[in-house]
Amino acid sequence: MTQYSINEDAIAESSGGEFEREPVPQSKLKSWKCFIGMYAGEHAAGTEFMIGPLFLTAGVSAFDLIVGLLIGNLLAVLSWRFLTAEIAVKNRLTLYFQLEKICGKKLVTGYNLANGILFCFLAGAMITVSATAVGIPFDMPMPKLTDTMPNGATWIIIVVLIGAVISIIAARGYETVSKAADWMSPFIVLAFLACGIVALSQLGVTSFSDFWNIWGEGSDPFPGQIKFTFWHVVIWSWFANGAMHVGMSDLSVFRFAKRARVGWVTAAGMYVGHYMAWIAAALLYAVYLKSPEAQAFLSLGEAPPVAPGPMAHNAIGVFGIIAVVLAGWTTANPTIYRAGLAFQAILPKLSTAKVTILAGSLATIAGLFPAFAMKLLDFVALYGFILAPFGAVIVFEHFFHKKAGIIKNYAESAKLSFNKSVFWAWAISFGLFYFISVQFDVFLSFVTFPAWILCGVLFLVFSKLFQKQVQ
What we know:
By secondary structure, the chain is an all-alpha fold. The protein has a single domain (31-387), classed as Hydantoin permease (Orthogonal Bundle), CATH 1.10.4160. Helices cover 72% and strands 0% of the residues. The relative contact order is 0.19.
């Protein structure tokens, strides 16, 4: 055994095999095959059963949906490949440890707390999705689009049991999360495809024009929803995972990649999940909207419920129930794993398994409240807007620190616990564009990229100014 191998084994043992506070060693790097299942599984998953129908409630047209998703998902793949994966293989650090080097311990603690909690809310929405399938044999009342609170004891019991299983899987670490996705994702992808085909038959589609006319020129949004245009679809689908790519959260995943080109595997998630699966789920909801139950809601001026379990069950029976359960798991598993890493940075004395169980418990509590799933379009937009600008700090420092003449990883080198350059860059960009969104009723996803750019530029400017003062 070489000294290099001995050192790698020592690192792995001290880190519990997750390498939270050191670069991933060469012997632990993984090929593209280890990532494609995770991304296909995570993005052809529980969120898709919610997002597809929610596009219909927003009154999208056929062109807006089909072409808008094509472009928006391409922008997401390019962001992962040329930003996230590129930086990840250079540094091989988690997002949280990388930010600590730049921001300082105190500042990054606040970020990690917000990041972990938001991840838990997202995972909770996926537990909600799985619960709508598990509850079918028990004749459980399904949550409505406007529901916020648990609707009964059966709902609570099912959510708690699902949350416990998901948390245990996530707590076993990246290897288990990746393997779970590898096993589940082919089944889920096949289920989405089958649901789409069956729904087309139920809708009487026999030609492309029939398919196009399902959405046609669009419609008025359902009560309580906003109208989605072409640009809403493009920008929202680009930043649906903004915290993961331009926000750099997936540094924690791609640090295990052998090469940056592994970032291209995210296309499996975007075009199998955020394209085929969203459209298939929208077709399931289109079938439901023709039912007497849905028509009764619409006649009363109310939005029909979006319950993935019954919709999939109506299309492909028990196979649909199983698919929805597994789809929720494959999104919640890696999301809880990421949340655990965020909490690990705040509570470094706790093992990865313990903080992941903590994250899973919070996600389970969130899953009890259907609002996180029913308002998923709005929540995902807010989530990306809050977290993405922090990724700009990493990106702009990585690519422009030499041109800007600033010191890389300044908090680490200057032994700062609070880098005010980062704080003011984020606070100004967040405050300015959130004000614009609220004051002028601008869709939040529209201002995410401008806020990201401004945060990166301000970080370079403030770093140049403050570092010069210190020197």
